[in-house]
């Protein structure tokens, strides 16, 4: 066991609840979701985990197989097991690149956090029913700016059970999408686009008339079965459009 592997094993903590393979699965998932084991990180070998956790190879293998099926791990013969890379997932999902859109118009891009606070999900969270009551959340209000002027508004909630380090992250340096995707594989995404009328706050921040049309992108993402983030992106309708293309002949 090398020093890095030894350090990785030492951070694993079982919770003592339920079958041992499920405890190992939750413990490894926690290391990934916390960012301690980032994408591409080589996790401890089955033998190391077996010795450290005082269990059998079959139990460890079952836990790692479940995480591999969920897309959190990549297991390759003679190369060990690593935390799954997210590059291919990003391309397939097609996250909106607001920075690229603003810069393509010749404007200098910046991301400004307007508000950041911690709260707890109540008994009912209508906008994000995937999170259970009592779940700690981080709420962000931010603006995607061109030449310092807000062009797209962002309202975001992050599940702190999934990404506990988000509470201390500097999102103006490393934007939430980039920060989250570097730590958690997005295995499921729900995307809704709808029209809304600008309220007083949106009208003032986006410099549009009260009641003018807005395009709103609503997104929810999961890492396996864990809800990660809920995002509402608000665009002035007269300056933006969403374009998608389907080409079954293109690889």
Automatic annotation (TrEMBL):
It comes from the Bacteria. Pfam families: GntR, UTRA. The keyword Transmembrane does not apply. InterPro entries: Bact_HTH_transcr_reg, Chorismate_lyase_/UTRA_dom_sf, Tscrpt_reg_HTH_GntR, UTRA, WH-like_DNA-bd_sf, WH_DNA-bd_sf. Keywords: DNA-binding, Transcription, Transcription regulation. One of its GO terms (molecular function) is DNA binding. The keyword Transcription applies. Residues 18-86 form the HTH gntR-type domain. This is GntR family histidine utilization transcriptional repressor. It comes from Ancylobacter tetraedralis.
